Amino acid sequence: MDSYTEGLIKKAGILVEALPYIQKLYKKTIVIKYGGNAMINDELKKSVIEDVVLLKFVGLNPVLVHGGGPDISNALKTYHVESKFINGLRVTDEDTMHIAQMVLVGKTNKEIVSLLNAKGGKAIGLCGLDGKLIECKKLYTYVDGKKEDIGFVGEVEKINTKVIKLLTDDEYIPVIAPVGVDGNGQSYNINADTVAAEVAKALKAEKLIYLTDVDGVKDKEGEVMPVIPTDEVDGYIEKGVISGGMIPKILSCKDAVSHGVKRVHIIDGRILHSILLEIFTKKGIGTMITADEFHD
Ligand SMILES: Nc1ncnc2c1ncn2[C@@H]1O[C@H](COP(=O)(O)OP(=O)(O)O)[C@@H](O)[C@H]1O
Ligand SMILES: CC(=O)N[C@@H](CCC(=O)OP(=O)(O)O)C(=O)O
Fold first, then answer.
1. Residue 220, exposed/middle/buried by CB under 10 A (0-12, 13-18, 19+)?
2. Which of 90, 97, 251 for mutating ligand 2's site (highest number of atoms within 8 Å of CB)?
3. Where are the domains of the chain?
4. Which CATH architecture has domain 26-290?
5. How far apart are CA 245 and CA 85, in angstroms?
6. pLDDT tens readout for residues 247-294
7. What are phi and psi of 117, to 5 degrees?
8. 79 closest CA partner among 48, 108, 112, 102
9. Do you know which PANTHER family this protein is assigned to (predicted)?
């Protein structure tokens, strides 16, 4: 058998395995959080972009929420603005807010839109200011019980889903930057994991997928846990098994599951075509956070 025929047979096999999932998820909303750490090289970016375009082509409704933390940090360095994090959130003064908005909305968002369009998709870039998509207020965080002011960091109050639905009901793929707005038109920097969960909750998404830089959530032996029921999440945090940037991520997952998002996954964005592997294969990859213990 020549390699062309062999390739065709392999693709047909993949399609046969994917078909039941395509039928089940037809016209359903899939929110994908594309973090800065999963944007590390062009090959990986291309694979994420191709997966998202393919989801739309086969009739699913992908909605992309992106981060861009490393891009913001680089830009802040260039402008000699100091950057620090408290509880995983970037302390955001006025200068930091300007630069974060410039990078997230002007650079990262448009790059993703452009890549999707180059692969045949029809992407529309949005941030929370567009159509007041993400309404928020100032967020306070607590360190050892003490209230900390971390500047223009936003707490989501409302996601106005109408604009997203207009796009997904049509041929478009919404691409959302994690910048929110308050009643006075002030912009706020919001953690992208939180925005993804809020968008998924508001859209009653079928699936929420976090692309990150580890192969899943690991137990104390360092083994990936394929399934974590929501009622076990707090225990893993208390025991220190889950720490650092994984804390806001897993809490966002728990929040989304508790508010009706059916399936929430944390998967390795460094694996080529990780989105398709998760959605269209029997085994799935990474960690699923669920209110029950069954993976279908
Ligand atoms: N139990 C755990 N399993 C996997 N990763 C963990 C765990 N606890 C902490 N982490 C850390 O969380 C990181 C992922 O969070 P973060 O860096 O904020 O991701 P992203 O940039 O994709 O939003 C991992 O790189 C890892 O260092
Ligand atoms: C308040 C806050 O921390 N906002 C984040 C927004 C970007 C983000 O979350 O990007 P990743 O998903 O790539 O980490 C920040 O300034 O880095």
1. exposed
2. 90
3. 26-290
4. 3-Layer(aba) Sandwich (3.40)
5. 11
6. 889 999 999 999 999 999 999 999 988 999 899 888 779 999 998 655
7. -65, -35
8. 102
9. N-ACETYLGLUTAMATE SYNTHASE (PTHR23342), N-ACETYLGLUTAMATE SYNTHASE, MITOCHONDRIAL (PTHR23342:SF0)
